[in-house]
Here is the input.
Amino acid sequence: MSDRSDSADSADRGRADRVAVTGTPGTGKSTATALLEDGYDVIHLNDRIKSDDDLWTERDDDRDTLVADLDAVAEELGDWSGVLDSHLAHRFDVDRVVVLRCHPEKIESRLEARGESPETAAENAESEALDVILSEAVAEHGAENVYEVDATDSDPEEVADAIRAAIDGEREPSAGTVNFIDYI
Here is the structure.
């Protein structure tokens, strides 16, 4: 009987109009959301920010990154719908937030493999272990709108399927289900 109730609750959620797919750099957001482009409008926010000088305010030379102007980005997005892919996506007005998670050791090796400095890779790994993005997402949108997906041992299609389930209301919110504190 509880299975039926759970199914009814999930069905009542319906498809969300605006979904943030967020997470620490290196969790697999861009790879997974690229697999959603056939069924959803996907906005790869980091690419937009990098390509438009009006969407960032300064370059952080220590981290070799741009500092996004969140107000300018929100204005640029306008009345959007679809899937917003970025480690900043949870900072915008959305219906649901999918937080991709990945073991910090894997994040560190992925980031170093793509050319990030060991310091930047370690900083991001520590942020993942401390649930920084998850905490921000829950504070901004409430635990009832946050869906955690552990991508550590999943292939990109499995991660994309989990994101689809969250978008389409076929999955229950799950903030606080992934724990990497053992890394610290």
About this structure: The CA atoms of residues 100 and 149 lie 5 Å apart. The chain is about 40% helix and 15% strand.
